[in-house]
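User: Could you go from structure to sequence for me? I need the amino acid at each position, not a summary. Structure tokens:
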């Protein structure tokens, strides 16, 4: 099968979601007595999940059936236009924009269902299971759209905002319908690349959110906090990058549902971390809620990263012992953060050290798992470096004392080649 490439139109589509989710972040900056206002935080979580669910629905359609044709272009541009109306309703006084937000949401769902209907009419070469999967998806999306539309008059006459029930129905239906989805696997290589690019955009928002660390006069305190904050963002980015580049099995056969669902909440956690880092420099927020929010956001992020690692290659799986080590370090980090909540300079340093420690731990573990076994009949003590008398060329390998000869030999140009040979077999030099 021809490799599916990420099209430029998919990237421009992602940017509208980054924009809306960025607007959502403003909701949790509504403080009440030094704490995040609970109703504003609940609105933030619900609206973020709704927007990311739309992204999830569109992503799966493009992955399975997108052909960079008129259908895909029109469908995406219609959704982008309607998403602006949804963005208009993302605010603390959302009650005044309930009809606009939910009307646009329902129309987007109907548009996605319409794209699936057209795809079904095009035919699928007699693949009955694929038609069954498309019909199930259309049914789920249209029922969700009906719930959202019905919530508008219900809210008008009773004041009950029932629209989120539609979003919860969509999540539940997608998870319970995974058996049918298994019959129509996604192009996992394309899916992982698309998701990675959206995560990169989210990290871009995090970098922009760091702007507040550089405000004011330049002082040792400003430099310290800005450097720690910047390195925290870099560490989180490197952690996800390493997982994507070195651990994920991008050739895996899967329906993509679990992978996408995990990333919906992973992106939510990244937005939470962005807000939590901004709160660290906000004098209007109390110290304890600052730390609690940062702890919760990072715990959620690393738990979800662990779940993403479940899609790893067989030689990079996290065994039970290593999983306990990761969990233990997360508990210790949380305890230290709670203990030092009145010392922000210490808390931000602990956060940075924990991220670096976890990154190094995962890198070391996966490198050990990928190490080749030492050849039969040899031990680490048999490794020897020899130099040619004729031309001075050095080689490293396992020395056979009976034959007085190096086996599995490799050329040595620098000392780094020697270190690489040891690492190849999982041996400390």
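Assistant: Here is the amino acid at each position, in order:
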């Amino acid at each position: 099968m021809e490799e599916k490439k990420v099209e430029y139109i998919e990237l421009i589509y992602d940017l509208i979601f980054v924009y809306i989710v960025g607007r959502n972040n403003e909701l949790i900056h509504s403080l009440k007595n030094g704490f995040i206002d609970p109703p504003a935080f609940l609105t933030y979580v619900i609206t973020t999940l709704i927007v990311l669910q739309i992204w999830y629905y569109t992503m799966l359609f493009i992955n399975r059936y997108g052909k960079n044709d008129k259908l895909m272009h029109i469908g995406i541009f219609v959704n982008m236009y309607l998403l602006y109306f949804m963005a208009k309703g993302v605010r603390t006084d959302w009650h005044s924009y309930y009809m606009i937000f939910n009307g646009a949401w329902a129309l987007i769902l109907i548009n996605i269902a319409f794209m699936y209907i057209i795809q079904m009419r095009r035919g699928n070469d007699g693949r009955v299971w694929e038609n069954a999967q498309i019909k199930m998806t259309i049914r789920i999306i249209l029922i969700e759209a009906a719930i959202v539309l019905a919530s508008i008059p219900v809210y008008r006459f009773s004041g009950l905002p029932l629209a989120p029930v539609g979003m919860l129905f969509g999540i539940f239906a997608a998870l319970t319908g995974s058996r049918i989805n298994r019959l129509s696997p996604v192009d996992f290589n394309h899916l992982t690349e698309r998701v990675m690019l959206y995560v990169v955009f989210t990290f871009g928002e995090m970098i922009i959110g760091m702007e507040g660390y550089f405000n004011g006069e330049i002082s040792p305190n400003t430099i310290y906090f800005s450097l720690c904050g910047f390195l925290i963002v870099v560490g989180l980015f490197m952690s996800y990058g390493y997982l994507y580049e070195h651990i994920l099995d991008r050739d895996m056969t899967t329906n993509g549902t679990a992978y996408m669902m995990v990333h919906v909440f992973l992106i939510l956690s990244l937005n939470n971390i962005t807000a939590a880092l901004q709160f660290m420099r906000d004098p209007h927020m109390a110290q304890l809620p600052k730390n609690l929010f940062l702890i919760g956001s990072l715990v959620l992020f690393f738990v979800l990263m662990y779940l993403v690692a479940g899609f790893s290659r067989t030689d990079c799986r996290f065994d039970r012992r290593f999983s306990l080590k990761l969990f233990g370090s997360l508990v210790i980090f949380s305890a230290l953060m709670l203990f030092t909540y009145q010392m922000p300079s210490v808390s931000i340093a602990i956060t940075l050290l924990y991220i670096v420690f976890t990154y190094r731990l995962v890198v070391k573990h996966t490198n050990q798992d990928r190490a080749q076994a030492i050849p039969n009949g040899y031990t680490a003590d048999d490794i020897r470096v020899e130099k040619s008398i004729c031309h001075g060329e050095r080689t490293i390998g396992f020395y056979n004392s009976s034959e007085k000869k190096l086996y599995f030999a490799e050329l040595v140009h620098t000392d780094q080649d020697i270190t690489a040979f040891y690492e190849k077999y999982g041996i400390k030099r």
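One structural detail worth keeping in mind: The chain has a mean pLDDT of 86.
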